[in-house]
Design a protein that fits this description.
The protein has 304 residues and is of the alpha/beta class. It has twelve helices and eight strands. It comes from Tenacibaculum jejuense.
């Protein structure tokens, strides 16, 4: 399956049982809710998926499980966030064996690679996999920016096809389009800039709050794509206080609380993360409750 870099692709949470095992039953419940809403792909093992806490065996199990659930209806991607080039190549090969259809890739972790090293890292993985690659460009959280000049070099690799644009600079969508046209597809990666990015030419949305609100997220994408901008804006304005839960250091706990509220998740997290308590928890719950109270009626967005 070739990947069409478009639409909404949830960066899904990883579900855990109360005794810290993978909760595949609840995970399947959530994936099916995403599919029912009409998402265009599934992204595993990102920040929201608590990737840094998962063993290689758990990542493999999640990939194989998701591939079986989606049954080729949408592509399954897995994130690679590795400390060495060798381990990144191994992860890419394992992902391909497990049935993933694409990779999301962060620059090297921990060591702050310079531009030359970062380009060499991405190219080495691209040269050792047939899977299409989406470069995750998030200098705010991960300290390394993949610049336009670096992308110019990276695009010599045919399977580097897309960028998850998370620089927080909305004008970067236009810069990428001006520089590369459709050669580099753009998936916006910041929930609170999603509609703005789509309207400026981004091809799709790697989303976070979609984990709890899949239909609303897909409706925004489909409405703006169909030119029904005002209808998309109205849903987006309702959604924004919830979307802001994603741009927070406790985004995993926040979004898992939202998944509980919409009936498609649990709030179990893996240590060192802990569930929210006290005033912090109350504030998040208040935002979620307010959103649910004013939840909009959606048009038949699948038929647009």
């Amino acid at each position: 399956m070739a990947i069409e870099w478009r639409g909404v692709m949830p960066a899904v949470t990883t579900k855990f049982t109360s005794d810290d095992q993978l909760d595949l039953k609840t995970f399947e419940l959530n994936i099916n809710a995403q599919l029912d809403a009409g998402v265009h792909g599934i992204v595993l093992g990102g920040t929201l998926g608590e990737a840094s806490t998962l063993s290689n065996e758990e990542k493999s199990e999640l990939t194989q499980t998701t591939v079986n659930i989606v049954n080729d209806n949408v592509p399954v991607l897995i994130n690679i966030a590795a400390q060495t080039t060798k381990s990144a190549i191994a992860a890419a090969k394992k992902a391909e064996q497990d049935g993933a259809k694409g990779l999301m890739m962060l620059p090297p972790m921990r060591y702050k690679a310079d531009g030359k090293e970062t380009v060499a890292y991405f190219k080495a993985v691209a040269d050792n996999t047939s899977l299409p690659i989406m470069v995750y460009n998030n200098p705010v959280d991960y300290g390394i920016e993949v610049t336009l000049n670096m992308f110019e070099e990276l695009l010599s690799c045919d399977n580097i096809e897309a960028v998850k644009e998370s620089t927080r600079d909305i004008s970067n969508v236009t810069r990428i389009k001006n520089a590369f046209g459709d050669r580099l597809k753009i998936m916006t990666g910041v929930d609170t800039l999603a509609l703005e990015s789509l309207l400026m030419g981004a091809d799709g949305w790697i989303a976070g709050l979609v984990c709890a609100f899949p239909k609303e997220t897909v409706a925004i994408y489909e409405l703006q794509k169909a030119g029904k901008i005002q209808e998309a804006i109205e849903i987006y304005r309702w959604f924004l206080p919830l979307l802001e839960l994603d741009i927070n250091s406790k985004l995993v706990q926040n979004i898992k609380l939202a998944e509980v509220a919409t009936g498609i998740g649990t709030e179990n997290v893996r240590a060192p993360r802990l569930p929210l308590i006290g005033e912090e928890r109350s504030k998040v719950l208040q935002i979620i409750e307010e959103g649910l109270k004013n939840r909009p009626s959606l048009p038949n967005y699948k038929s647009l």
